[in-house]
Amino acid sequence: MCALPKHLRPRWRYLAVGIERPPDSSLDRRTFQRALWAAARELLGDPGSADCDPTVMRFRFDEEGRTGEAIVRVRRNERERGRAALACVSDIGDEPVGLHVRGTSGTIRSCEERHLRGRSDSGSEMTVIFGGVDRPARKRGGERVDVHTEEGWVGATALDIETETSDREQRE
Amino acid sequence: MTEADRDVFYEAVSAYPNGRSTAARLALTAREQGYGGVVLRTDPDRETAVGPANPTEIADADGIDAVDGVEIRTDSPGSASGALGEHRAEHTLVILAGGTGEMNRFAAEEPRIDVLARPMAGRGDVDHVVARAAARNGVRIEFDFSSVLRTSGGRRVRAVSDLRKLRELVGKYDVPYVVSAGAGSHLELRAPRELAAVGEVIGFPREAVLEGLSEWGRLAARNRDLQGGSFIEPGVRVESYDEES
């Protein structure tokens, strides 16, 4: 079939999405796409979902840092409904997922240039003092630290914890 | 929505040990998503939160307003009344978790309560009596989006229809309201524009959702002013004397 003339082709809009997951969980492109389709269908119904047509165009997930980025294509006048479908993706494979639309662009290229950041800082393992108890933790980019407790992973920042070394320095 | 509006949106969150992220982590993520502040729904029974930083430290480190709030969760008006007397003066915002007809009615008729949270949760229901009382006493009713965002199937259908009923009552009696995603971890936070988009799909005008998010901030500012010491009574306040004027 020959390509449609340019003025008849659908107009798209590209959403740059930041992805964050708890430690010990992974994510690949197909799983993410399936979760997004499922969320769109549940929220918008079959006709709404077909209109919106959210499709993952670029996907990158950093296994070390448990963060990722994606570019999701939606029909241009369905941008807000695409955003709503994305907001309703709360769990993938029984583990929570945090999604945030960083911005939208008219082309994939400008979306990549303006909103994607490339590789994030990889997580490093450490032991921290959280609530007066030594606990295993993973450091993420910036101030973020995930601490492992009896109830699972707890998201924290440098404000909430004392690292082993800084604690020893204080004692000395 | 313009960039200048960004700081007016607030979100009310449950932090560790009730939630799965500390207040500081929630605040950091909220700032990235475009919020100007977070309201911490502290549980009075678990207030001895381990480790986590206090609201002032968070505000200094993360550059986001952190409002010291308390969420009273009891199932009898008597104990709620006791808790209210204890916490009203200590915290900027006092939230009461609804969810039964009795508690919703109690909250709506108590002007010392700022927000009635999750009135439709469980077997809770709101009728015209509660709506009218809430409007009269200035008690904000919360539209809780958590079930829309994080459940599916029949539970979600019920949540959406409850929100619709509540929206119609709130509109009819002009009840003040707030909107929240009810996040208990930084992964459950959703940006203001995302919440507005979800709201639009389930029948809320876009502006109403954004208005509900900024109402948290207005409430916090009002209460801080009232508790600030310069306020004596309506129309009377202590101000520093300026000789030149």
Q: Give the integer mean of the pLDDT values of chain B.
A: 88
CATH homologous superfamily of chain B? Metal-dependent hydrolases
Gyration radius of chain A (Cα, Å) is 20 Å
DSSP summary: helix tally of chain A? 4
Q: Flag low-confidence runs of chain A.
A: 166-172
Q: What is the CATH architecture term of the largest domain in chain A?
A: 2-Layer Sandwich
Overall 3D form of chain B: globular
Strand-helix topology:
The complex is a heterodimer of chains A (172) and B (245).
Chain A: E1 12-20, H1 29-52, E2 55-62, E3 67-75, H2 79-87, E4 91-92, E5 95-96, E6 98-105, H3 108-115, E7 124-130, E8 133-139, E9 144-149, E10 152-157, E11 162-163, H4 164-171
Antiparallel strand pairs in A: 1-3, 1-6, 2-3, 4-5, 7-8, 7-11, 8-9, 9-10
Chain B: E1 10-13, H1 23-32, E2 37-42, H2 55-62, E3 65-72, H3 77-87, E4 93-97, H4 101-108, E5 115-117, H5 128-137, E6 140-144, H6 146-150, H7 153-173, E7 177-180, H8 192-201, H9 206-227, E8 231-233, E9 236-237
Parallel strand pairs in B: 1-2, 2-3, 3-4, 4-5, 5-6, 6-7
Antiparallel strand pairs in B: 8-9
Helix pairs in contact in B: 1-2, 4-5, 8-9
Offer a concise description of the structure.
Chain A is α+β, with helices and mostly antiparallel strands. Chain A folds into two domains: 10-115, Alpha-Beta Plaits; 124-171. Chain A is built from four helices and eleven strands.
Structure description:
The complex is a heterodimer of chains A (172) and B (245). Chain A has 172 residues and is α+β, with helices and mostly antiparallel strands. Chain A has 2 domains: 10-115, Alpha-Beta Plaits; 124-171. In chain A, 28% of the residues lie in helices and 38% in strands. Chain A is built from 4 helices and 11 strands, in the order βαββαβββαβββββα. In chain A, the strands form 3 sheets. Chain A has a 5-stranded antiparallel beta sheet with strand order 10-9-8-7-11. A 4-stranded antiparallel beta sheet of chain A has the order 2-3-1-6, sandwiched between helices. In chain A, helix 1 (29-52) crosses helix 2 (79-87). Chain A is elongated, with a radius of gyration of 20 Å. Residues 166-172 of chain A have low confidence and may be disordered. Chain B has a single domain, classed as TIM Barrel (Alpha-Beta Barrel), CATH 3.20.20.140. In chain B, 43% of the residues lie in helices and 16% in strands. Chain B has helices at 23-32, 55-62, 77-87, 101-108, 128-137, 146-150, 153-173, 192-201, 206-227, and strands at 10-13, 37-42, 65-72, 93-97, 115-117, 140-144, 177-180, 231-233, 236-237. In chain B, the strands form 2 sheets. In chain B, strands 1-2-3-4-5-6-7 form a 7-stranded parallel beta sheet. A two-stranded antiparallel ribbon of chain B has the order 8-9. In chain B, helix 3 (77-87) links the parallel strand 3 and strand 4. The longest helix of chain B has 22 residues, at 206-227. Chain B starts with 9 loop residues before the first strand and ends in an 8-residue tail after the last strand. In chain B, 51% of the residues are buried. Chains A and B meet through helix 1, helix 2, strand 6 and strand 10 of A and helix 1, helix 2, helix 6 and helix 8 of B.
